[in-house]
Amino acid sequence: MNNKSSNPAPAKNPRFKRPEASPARRRFIWLTLGWAASLFAVIACGFASVRSLIPNVLFEPSRRFKADHPEDYPDETFTFIEEVRLFIVRKGNSYRAVSALCPHLGCTVNLTAGEYPFLCPCHGSHFQENGDVVSGPSPRGLAWHFVSLSKDGRLVIDMDREVNHDKYLIV
Amino acid sequence: MNPFFAIWKKLAGSRVGRSIFRVGLPESSLGRAQAMVSSFLLHVHPAKVHRHSLKFSYTFGLGLISIYLFLILFVTGVLLMFFYVPSTDRAYSDMKDLEFVVSTGVLLRNMHRWAAHLMVLAVFLHMCRVFYTAAYKPPREFNWIVGVCLFVLTLVLSFTGYLLPWDQLAFWAITVGTNIAGYAPVIGEKIKFVLLGGNTVGDSALLRFYVLHVIVLPGAALFLIAIHIWRIRKDGGLSRPDEPDNVLQQIETGSMPTNKSYGLMELAKGTSPAVGINPEDQVSAWPHLIFREILLFMATLAVVLFISLIWNAPLEELANAVHPPNPAKAPWYFLGLQELVAFSAFWGGVVVPALLLVALITLPYLDFKRRGVGVWFSRERKVAITIFTICVVAAVILTVIGTYFRGPNWDWVWPWKEQIVITH
Predict the structure, then answer these.
(1) Is B175 on the interface with A (CB under 8 A)?
(2) pLDDT < 70 regions, chain B
(3) Most buried residue among B209, B224, B344, B345 by CB atoms closer than 10 A?
(4) Would the CB atoms of B328 and A122 count as touching at under 8 Å?
(5) Neighbour count for residue A12 (Cβ, 10 Å)
C-alpha cells in the first residue's frame, strides 16, 4: 500500500489513462449521497422539533425586581418579598438580597426563630444568617443577588447576577 | 339451555349476527379455535393455551390487571379532559367544578387517581412476579426490557398527571421533581428548562406536562403494550417449566425448503407456541382464557369503583409558590426516592435510579441460563433472588420511612406519637 502511494500523482502523468467510470462506483456514490441527504433531512427535522421546545421568550416575572427605598426596611431585619421569593437583609447601612430558594431542590425556605434563621421545610436544610449551609442535604448556600440603587433611590435586585458573600450595597 | 344463551345464540347466528361475528357461537373444538382466530378483538389470543398459563397462583393476573387499569385510566382520562383547561387560572377551579358542578365528576376523578396508584402497584408487582418466576430468561429477554420501559412510563405518566390539579402537592412535587432532573450531569439544567418551558413552574410547565400526560406518554405506552403482548405470543406464550421429555428446539430461519407445501411454517423463528407442548396440556382459549379475563376485568373494575366510592382523591390548597406545605411529600410510590434525595440530590436522585435502571435492563443478558423458569422462587437461582429481594426490601423500607416516619422539615417522627401540624 505504502509503495503505491509514494508513486507520483497519476493526474500529472500524461500517459495516465482515466479509468472507465464503473457502474458499481456510480451506484455507490449515488447511494451514499442519497442516504446522506435523507439522514440530513431527518436529523434537521429532529433538530427543528427539539429547538422549537426551547423557549425564546419567557412569560415570567422580570428577573430584575424593584423594591422599596432603603430606609423602608428596618435595621437588623430580614424582609421576605413574596413575588420574587427572596429576603432583603439590612444591617446598618448595608443591604443584601438573599434568595429564599433552597439550592437542594428549589423549595422556599422559611424564617425560623432558632439559632439559624433559614430552614427548608422540604428536606430540612438549615442555613446561617449569611446563607451558608449548616446542615441538611443542600449542596450550596443560599444565593446572594446583586443589589443596586435606581435613579429614584429604590433598591433594584438582579436575580440573574449572583454575588459573593462579601458584597453588600452600602447606602 | 339457559335463556340468555339461547337469545345470544339466535342473535349471533342470524344473518346480521354472522356478518358481524364471522363465525357463530363455537360448538366444537374447531369452532372454538375459529372464534379466536377470526375475531379482531380476540385474535391476540392463541387458539389454545397451556394449562400452566391459566394457573392464577402463577401470574396472579398482574399483567392483565395492569392493562385493565390502563384501560380504566384511558377512559376516565378522556372524560376528564372535557372538563379541564391546562392553565394556572383555570386548572384548580376546574378541579372544584368536577367536585361540585359536574355530575359524577368526583367519581371520575377518584377512579382516575386511584387507578393510577393501583397501576403503579400492579406494574411493580408484575415485574416482581416475572423476576421470581425467571420469566425474563431466553427467549423473553427483550420483552423484559419492554416491560422495564413500561414500568418507567407508568411512573412518568403518574408524575406528569400530578401537576395538573395545580394544588400545593402538584406545585411542590413538580418543583422538587424537575430540580432532581436538574442534577443530571451536563444536560440536567437544559432538561429542566425544556421540561418547564422556563425557569419556574408556571403556565408553560402546566401546558407541557398536560400534553405529555394526555398524548405523548399514553401513546408511547400503548405502542409498547402492543409490542409487549405481541412478544408474549411470539416467544411461545407465558413462561412455564420445560417439559421433561420435550427438548426445546430452536428453529433457524433462512433455509426455505422449496419442495414442501408447508414452507411458510419454517419462517417462524425461535420457540413457536407449538414447540415443547404436549397436546393434552392445552385447553381452548375459548372459553377457559376468555372468561377468566372477563372475570378479572370485572374484579379490577369492582376494586377501583369500591375505592373511588369510599375515598375521595386528595386535593390540597391552591398552589402557592411562597409556602411549601410542611412536610412536602410526594405520592407514596415516590417517597422512597424522596427519602434518598433527602440524603443527597445527586446520589439519591440521579445516580441510584440510573444504576437501578441499568441493572434492570442488563439483567436478562447477564442472567441468561435457563434455570428455574416457570417456578416461583426456584432454588437454582439463589444469588439472583437474594440480590433482587434486597433491592425490593430496600425500596419498601425507604418508602415506609418516607411515608410514616417523616414529619415537618423531614425530621424523624414516630407515627404513633401525636404529630405537630405546622400550617402556613
Answers:
(1) yes
(2) 1, 243-277, 418-424
(3) B209
(4) yes
(5) 7
Which triple of cell numbers denotes residue A8? 507520483
* Burial of residue B263 (number of CB atoms within 10 Å: 0-12, 13-18, 19+): exposed
The strand ranges marked E within B251-374 are 282-284
Residue B267 CB neighbours (<10 A): 10
Write out the H or E segment, with its range, that includes residue B155: helix B141-163
Where are the domains positioned within chain A?
Answer: 2-52, 64-170
- pTM assigned to the model: 0.87
Give the separation between CA A159 and CA A146, rounded to whole angstroms: 7
- Read off the pLDDT of residues B368-409 as tens digits, 9 standing for 90 and up: 888 888 889 998 899 999 999 999 999 999 999 988 898 888
The secondary element (H helix, E strand) that includes residue B401 is: helix B382-404
Tell me the C-alpha distance between B307 and B110, whole Å: 8
- Cα angle for residues B120, B122, B126 (degrees, 5° grid): 120
Task: Label the pairing between strands A94-99 and A144-149.
Answer: antiparallel
C-alpha cell at B31: 369452532
Please state, in angstroms and as integers, the Cα–Cα distance from residue B395 to each residue in A34, B305, B390, following that order.
51, 29, 9
Query: Distance between CA A120 and CA B326 in Å, rounded?
Result: 9
Answer whether A137 sits within 8 Å of B197, measured CB to CB.
no
> Is the pLDDT at A159 greater than 50, yes or no?
yes
Residues carrying CATH 1.20.810.10, chain B: 54-229+293-410
B66 contacts B123 by C-beta, under 8 angstroms = yes
C-alpha cell at position B301: 373494575
The CATH number for A64-170, chosen from 3.40.50.1450, 1.10.10.10, 3.30.930.10, 2.102.10.10, is 2.102.10.10
Helix axes B285-310, B62-81, angle to 10 degrees: 50
The b/e string for B177-202 (b: 16+ C-beta within 10 A; e otherwise) is bbbbbbbbeeebeeebbbbbbbbbbb
What confidence score (pLDDT) does residue B124 get? 96
Taking an 8 Å cut-off on Cβ atoms, the answer to whether B328 and A55 are in contact is no
B54-229+293-410 CATH pick, 3.40.1260.10, 3.40.50.1820, 3.90.550.10, 1.20.810.10: 1.20.810.10
Interface residue B321 vs chain A (CB under 8 A): yes
User: How confident is the model at residue B75, as a pLDDT?
Assistant: 97
Q: Which residues pair with A89 in a beta bridge?
A: A78, A96
Crossing angle of helices B141-163 and B168-181, in 10° steps, is 130
Interface check for B188 against chain A (CB to CB < 8 A): the answer is no
Q: Which candidate from B179, B202, B322 shows the least CB-CB separation from A82?
A: B322
Angle between helices B285-310 and B29-37 (to 10 degrees): 50
B212 Cβ contact partners less than 8 Å away, ≥ 6 residues apart: B156, B160
Query: Of B277, B375, B276, which Cα lies nearest the Cα of B51?
Result: B277
Q: Which of A114, A106, A109, A113 is nearest to A98 (CA)?
A: A109
